[in-house]
Amino acid sequence: MAAESRNRGTPLDLEVINSIRINRSALERRASSLPKRRAVKSDWQVAWMLHAIRCIDLTTLAGDDTPGRVLRISQKAIRPIRTDLLSALDLDVNTIHCASVCVYHNMVETVSKSVQGSPVGTCAVSTGFPAGHIPHHQKLEQIEASVAAGADEIDIVVSRSNVLRNDWQALYDEVKDFRHSCGDAHLKTILATGELASLKQVAQASQVCMMAGADFIKTSTGKESVNATLPVGLVMARAIRDFYERTGNKVGFKPAGGISKAKDAVTWLAMMKEELGEEWMRPNLFRIGASSLLGDIERQLEFHLSGHYSAANRHPMA
User: In terms of Cα–Cα distance, which of 211, 241, 249 is closest to 17?
Assistant: First the structure.
């Protein structure tokens, strides 16, 4: 996302927040129709899958992460698809890469050095991820430390208690502080939608975070029992559209958690195309937080070329 296109934020407008209404049954009908209406086949399917790769924040947030493992994943993000497959598809290896590598703070420097000189970004989860239960000043210190270590994107978790209590001023102030601590790094706010009380709260929290200057709004940490779902995605995409129509500021969207199949990635791309238009399908405004999705896309590409599904061990570090 270019610096000049960043969300400038707005004052908190409680009138807008309190006027939000959600038709849950209509949203669920719309969500259930998306995978059926937007099926793509053959060469078009390949093109959509390749585009999905460019939108992936390749993520590893495991307790057993080591510098060696993170280094390999960083290289995978730069060269996500085997060279023989890209050659068979008549594609230049330099044109296909992930958007970023997403890690905990202590691995930021490893990623930053590994992807230096490539188009792949360095993303850090922060602010007491995934629960967010640390003091506010420590959250700001975490953000600043990750930016200093080389992160150009910061995925923060909001304090869910502020949302559950409808304390929109507290949520606004918190995210505004996070945005300030990010400096030039882009801010993605994770709502942890599976832990919120309703779709209305998802819409309200989305609007508050955008008013506070979030560059992206993100569904989940990937650690909740319920992560990215299409009804939630529709609510957040429509909040983005409403915010853009009111302010002229473009905010990105990142579904994360549970997106592990190529067909699911295509469905999310289709949702973005239909709800927000082609501009919001690009990596500067759309990301997919995933760890195993890349492996399935690579398997599907090999199936397209050979007619056979390959073993997972043919697609390492996916």
Answer: 211
In this prediction the pTM is: 0.95
The 10s digit of each residue's pLDDT in 164-180 is 999 999 999 999 999 99
Segment 258-283, tens digit of pLDDT: 999 999 999 999 999 999 999 999 99
How far is Cα of residue 197 from the mean position of the Cα atoms in its chain? Answer: 22
Distance from CA of residue 215 to its chain's centroid?
11
Show the tokens assigned to 114: 């590994």
Identify whether the C-beta of residue 70 lies closer than 8 Å to the C-beta of residue 109. Answer: no
Which CATH architecture best describes the domain 11-314?
Alpha-Beta Barrel (3.20)
Strand partners, 122: 101
Query: Which residue is it, tokens 């102030």?
Result: 173
Q: Which residues are catalytically annotated? A: 155, 218, 254
Q: Is the peptide bond before 80 cis (omega within 30 degrees of 0)?
A: no
Q: What are the b/e assignments for 106-144, b being 16+ CB within 10 Å?
A: ebbbbbbebbeeeebbbbbbbbbbbebeeeeeebbebbb
The secondary structure of 28-54 as a DSSP string is: HHHHHHHHHHT---HHHHHHHHHHHHH
* CA atoms within a 13 Å half-sphere pointing along the CA-CB vector of 130: 19
- Tokens describing residue 156: 């923060």
72: number of Cβ within 10 Å? 15
Tokens 């890209």 belong to 86
Amino acid at residue number 84 = D
Say how many CA atoms lie within 13 Å of 177 toward its Cβ. 17
Block residue for tokens 């937007």 = 38
Domain boundaries, given as residue ranges, for the chain:
11-314
